[in-house]
Amino acid sequence: MITDMEGVSGIFDIELQCEPYKSPRWEESRKLLTGEVNAAADGLFDGGATEVIVWDGHDSGHTLSVLDIHPRVRLLTGTPVLPALPIDSSVSALIFIGQHPMAGAANGILSHTEDAAGVQNWWANGKPVGEIGIWTMVAAEARVPTIMLSGDTAACKEFLDLVPNGECAEVKSGVSRTAGFMLPHAAATALIREKARRAMERLAEIRPYKVTGPVELKIEYTTAGVRQPTDRPREGVVQLGPRTWLFRGRTFTEAVFLAFSM
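-> structure tokens emitted (262 positions)
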């Protein structure tokens, strides 16, 4: 289970809610995320899962606590754990909880890709992708299907574009990037539990997203995040313009590793 915070129901403002130990409503946000994570774990176990690993994916693993996380899960926290996470043939499936949509998504609440201040757009072999697409494709290379997501309307649309028969818990719907209609926490957790259960029960029906190599990742950085030209060329890395770089790999994971190591 990959977790984030911006896709949790009730979350709509970074400074107010999402900055660890700085935001006025940070502790409330942690409780909201933990409730959604625990509901998803319940659903997965109800659906037949025997083990659930939860990655504390918001802000470098500074969010979830073993004090109140589901007693049957294993929590992966701290940093570094990138670029591939422990996703291999021993993993049956991947799900997202509290996931936000990609940068630029229409009415996507707190939409961004990786570094909100530093990244404008990502493309994988010409297809626009965000964090949903990135991890779905990383998992696919290990033949692991991504079966379920919880988040806002835009995140669900993004997920279902990649996995049309996946399960999606739409816990909020944006009217702008920083406003939207929210499900009450009890309703959101009930929906997440049900969707996670259904996803686990339908595991055999949902296939991994197909990734065909070689892979070209194109990243357009913002003015604040722009990478500086280098006098030491790196294989697979090409600067296309003042703010745009290309990362080439034999596989998606190889190209992502080059991008993350910039």
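The longest strand covers residues 167-176.
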